[in-house]
């Protein structure tokens, strides 16, 4: 498996994979465009208080079979958020998901980030991912269910500098929950 920064040429394939992995979300479509636009995606970044969004493609036999993204917020330069992480259904169970996750943890450590965070939900479809995060020491914080949702969001934080990470609840004031759109509720 080859992991490299997502290119413009790979964008349609990566967007299709993201849509199949996360059919209930759509922010990934714009995030991947922003990641390959290198600084010319001011609207996406500014609207979210981001300083940067990056994405990587994992390829086998010329096909994009895995994705990763990191969101960096201007207010918390010592932290980074993992988003849009997954592998296509045909390649699951071969250890590639673990390899990708370990690769992004090593990348964030190399960049001297203190904390890697992500959010997911407690729904069954994310149970495999939740186990991978727990095995690597991510600390979970349950969030209240959002309006109109009857499942809980969980924020996971991993200390990368040998220290216990500051909890998300202590850090979150005024900072958006990475890519998490509060659903509109019918009046
Ligand atoms: C999470 C995900 C990336 C794992 O990828 P993968 O390549 O299948 O995972 P691996 O082959 O590296 O296996 C990792 C572990 O999960 C276990 N596992 C994999 N698929 C499993 C399944 N369907 N049921 C139970 N366990 C499973 C493996 O046995 C392995 O366990 P171990 O580390 O204790 O040996 C993949 O399932 C995925 O893309 N899911 C959809 C998107 C997603 O959930 N992303 C995370 C959003 S928060």
Task: Characterise the protein shown here.
This protein has 187 residues and is of the alpha+beta class. It has one domain: 3-Layer(aba) Sandwich (Aminopeptidase), CATH 3.40.630. The chain is 30% helix and 29% strand. It has helices at 11-21, 27-37, 42-48, 96-110, 127-135, 168-171, and strands at 2-5, 50-60, 63-73, 79-87, 115-121, 139-143, 153-159. A hairpin with a 5-residue loop joins β3 (63-73) and β4. It is globular and about 45 Å long. Residues 21, 85-87, 92-98, 120, 126, 128-129, 132 line the site of coenzyme A.
Protein topology:
Blueprint: E1 2-5, H1 11-21, H2 27-37, H3 42-48, E2 50-60, E3 63-73, E4 79-87, H4 96-110, E5 115-121, H5 127-135, E6 139-143, E7 153-159, H6 168-171
Helix pairs in contact: 1-2
The site of coenzyme A has 16 residues, from strand 4, helix 4 and helix 5.
Helical content band: 25-40%
What small molecules accompany the polymer chains?
coenzyme A
Alpha carbon gap, first and last residue: 48 Å
Number of domains: 1
The name of the CATH topology is Aminopeptidase
Descriptive terms for the model:
187 residues, 7 strands, seven-stranded mixed sheet, disordered C terminus, 6 helices, Aminopeptidase, binds coenzyme A, globular, alpha+beta
Could you provide a short overview of the structure?
With 187 residues, this protein is α+β, with helices and mostly antiparallel strands. Helices cover 30% and strands 29% of the residues.
């Amino acid at each position: 498996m080859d992991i490299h920064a997502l290119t413009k040429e790979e964008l349609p394939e990566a967007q299709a994979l993201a849509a199949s992995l996360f059919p209930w979300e759509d922010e990934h479509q714009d995030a991947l465009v922003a990641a390959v636009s290198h600084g010319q995606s001011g609207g996406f970044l500014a609207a979210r208080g981001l300083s940067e969004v990056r994405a990587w493609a994992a390829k086998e036999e010329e096909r994009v079979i895995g994705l990763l993204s990191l969101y960096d917020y201007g207010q918390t330069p010592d932290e980074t958020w993992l988003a849009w992480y997954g592998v296509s259904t045909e390649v699951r169970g071969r250890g590639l998901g673990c390899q990708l996750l370990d690769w992004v943890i090593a990348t964030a450590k190399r960049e001297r980030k203190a904390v890697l965070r992500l959010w997911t939900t407690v729904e069954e479809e994310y149970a495999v991912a939740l186990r991978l995060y727990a095995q690597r020491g991510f600390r979970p914080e349950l969030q209240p269910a959002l309006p109109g949702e009857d499942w809980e969001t969980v924020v996971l934080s991993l200390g990368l500098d040998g220290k216990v990470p500051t909890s998300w609840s202590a850090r979150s004031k005024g900072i958006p929950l990475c890519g998490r759109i509060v659903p509109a509720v019918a009046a």
